[in-house]
Amino acid sequence: MLNEIQTHEWHAEFSSEIQSLSINTIENGHILFFPRLAFTLLPHEEKFLSSRYSDPKIKNISFNRNTHLLRGVCSEDNICNELTEMMRRFACYAEKLIQNLLSSYSPSLCIGRTSFRPMEISGRISSYRKDDTRLHVD
Questions:
Q1: Contact assessment for residue 26 and residue 102, using Cβ atoms and an 8 Å cutoff
Q2: 81: domain range?
Q3: Ramachandran assignment for 85, one of left (phi > 0), alpha (psi -120 to 50 degrees), beta (any other)
Q4: Which tops the pLDDT comparison, 22 or 50?
Q5: What residues have CB less than 8 Å from 39, skipping those under 6 apart?
Q6: What is the mean pLDDT of residues 80-87?
Q7: What is the chain's percent helix, strand, coil content, to nearest 5?
Q8: Is residue 56 part of a domain?
Q9: Closest CA to 118 of 76, 93, 81, 87
Q10: Would you list the DSSP string of 26-59?
């Protein structure tokens, strides 16, 4: 089952009815889908859609908001700072969305790494466990 949430705002407030429906959806193993929710890149961040800043030996760029560490990047400090800020902003938006939509989970929320994958997956050699062309859940 797919439950569509029609919001375009990361900081939206949700009615108790939508919150309850959303909790029931995920607790029953189904999917919440946000077809109108976009993460808008700032003009200077659009360059990160290219794989040229990524370490070719690592499949994604990751940001740990708890330690402020950025990994998987081959670039100079100013680029790393811009990319860190973009990923930090996304992590904060995602956390706020969860707090507003699934507020009963907020006290137990553990913030993990934020990943970004601008590299082409198709044709990339990897083990079957790291093969992102296979169906999997992150």
A1: yes
A2: 2-116
A3: alpha
A4: 22
A5: 10, 90, 93
A6: 93
A7: 40, 15, 50
A8: yes
A9: 87
A10: HHTT-EEE-TT---PPPGGGGGGGSGGGB-TTSS
Number of domains in the chain: 1
Residues 97-128 pLDDT 10s: 999 999 999 899 898 999 998 876 666 566 65
**Residue 94 located in a structural domain:** yes
- What is d(CA 91, CA 114) in angstroms, rounded to the nearest whole number? 6
Q: Give the separation between CA 130 and CA 77, rounded to whole angstroms.
A: 29
Q: What is the pLDDT of residues 33-74, one digit of tens each?
A: 999 999 999 999 999 998 888 887 777 899 999 999 999 887
Cβ-Cβ contacts under 8 Å for 53 (sequence gap 6 or more): 47, 61, 73, 74, 75, 79, 83, 118
In a domain, 130, yes or no: no
CA distance 60 to 124: 12
pTM for this prediction = 0.83
Asked if residue 122 belongs to a domain, the reply is no
User: What's the length of the chain?
Assistant: 138
